[in-house]
Specification:
Layout: H1 5-18, H2 25-60, H3 66-93, H4 98-129, H5 137-169, H6 174-211, H7 217-223
Helix pairs in contact: 1-2, 2-3, 2-4, 3-4, 4-5, 5-6
């Protein structure tokens, strides 16, 4: 979860690049308002990280309190609509550059994460009110998470590509290049490594499960065996 380090580092980099302390009051106020946008986007990301397990636990554990579900769903809707609105306003009122693209991409990633959370929450709720449950639920949830992670990776890759293009054909600075390198390592390389490792582990687990012999109906009746998960 974010602890304010991102905002502090971003403020330092922007201050070094723009000469924040030497600006006039009006220019300094405008730049600090941009910092405020960055703080808000980071806070929204922290809110997603806090609310995600709570909302999913409400549906997975079968909690039937309408008030708790209403609060969870309302928070998801807010965390989906507000970052999307911020991204639209930022891209509409300002000329697109690398720093603005980082803020817009952060808003879009927040909305994507909330959309994936809400979809999984809906699946759990359908399974809760459906007698037979949802077939291949585990595969569906894994697929939703995989699509969400792929979209996040593509957004981060687009940010790096735009930043590289701007550094090569537009304004070049050591600070901008440093941000691109850090962003490439943290949001592209590490995400690619994590996603690939998750895929390999998933494929290995599926291969091992597929290699197990399937019990016949006669064997199940003879041992009076039940599924340890659904007891059927």
């Amino acid at each position: 979860m974010h602890r304010g380090v991102t905002e502090g580092v971003t403020l330092m980099l922007l201050a070094l690049q723009t000469g924040l302390l030497d600006l006039h009051v009006l220019q300094r106020t405008f730049l600090l308002s941009i910092i405020l946008f960055i703080v808000v986007t980071s806070t929204l990301q922290s809110m997603v990280e806090i609310s995600d397990p709570i909302v999913l636990a409400l549906a997975a554990t079968g909690n039937r309190s309408p008030w708790k579900h209403l609060r969870g769903v309302s928070m998801c809707l807010f965390l989906f609509i507000f970052p999307s609105f911020m991204a639209y306003k930022l891209s509409h009122f300002f000329d697109m550059d690398f720093w603005l693209l980082i803020m817009v991409s952060s808003c879009l990633l927040t909305s994507l994460q909330v959309l994936g959370t809400f979809f999984i929450y809906s699946l759990f709720m359908v399974e809760l009110f459906q007698d037979g449950g949802v077939e291949r639920m585990d595969e569906i949830i894994y697929g939703v998470n995989a699509v969400s992670r792929v979209l996040e990776f593509l957004v981060a890759l687009c940010v790096v590509a735009y930043g590289t293009w701007e550094s090569m054909f537009g304004e070049w600075s050591w600070i901008g290049v440093s941000v691109i390198i850090v962003h490439s390592y943290v949001n592209v390389w590490l995400r690619a490594q994590s996603g690939w490792s998750s895929f390999l582990l998933r494929r290995e687990a599926a291969h091992k499960i597929g290699a197990l012999p399937r019990a016949s109906e006669e064997q199940l009746r003879a041992h009076n065996d039940l599924c340890s998960i659904c007891f059927q």
